[in-house]
Specification:
mainly alpha; two-stranded antiparallel ribbon; 2 strands; single chain; flat; 5% strand; 124 residues
């Protein structure tokens, strides 16, 4: 068991290292493509293209400060359904229309969960 956990940790560290290297290489490639005339580079496996993406975003805060009257004309009231309150008041309906599924298992790394306890609960 310890061998598996140790190897898993090694693989996770390797993945992190490779992801960092991948980001660095992509940044270097972008810089190189910026210096080419066509902004493209073709290999036998792929075409690498540099595309400029505009990230314009409406500044709602600034607009509200400068044009509060216009801003208020376009506000919408959102009505939401509070499922917690419904569950408390209408417990019978919730139980009647709720489907019970099987317990799903997943590997819990951050928490210290005992899978055997879940299996015992499933058998009951």
């Amino acid at each position: 068991m310890e061998n598996i956990i140790d190897r898993l940790n090694q693989v996770n560290e390797l993945i992190e290292t490779l992801e960092i290297e991948q980001k660095e290489l992509k940044s270097k490639l972008i810089e190189e493509l910026k210096n080419t005339e066509s902004k493209n580079y073709r290999t036998d496996k792929a075409l690498y293209s540099l595309k400029t993406i505009s990230n314009d975003k409406f500044n709602e805060t600034k607009f509200k400060e400068e044009h509060e009257d216009i801003y208020n004309n376009y506000l919408k009231t959102k009505v939401s359904f509070d499922i917690t309150t419904f569950k408390k008041k209408e417990k019978g309906l919730v139980e009647q229309y709720t489907e019970k599924g099987e317990i799903a298992y997943s590997l819990a790394i951050k928490e210290n969960k005992n899978i055997e306890e879940k299996e015992d609960e499933k058998e009951k």
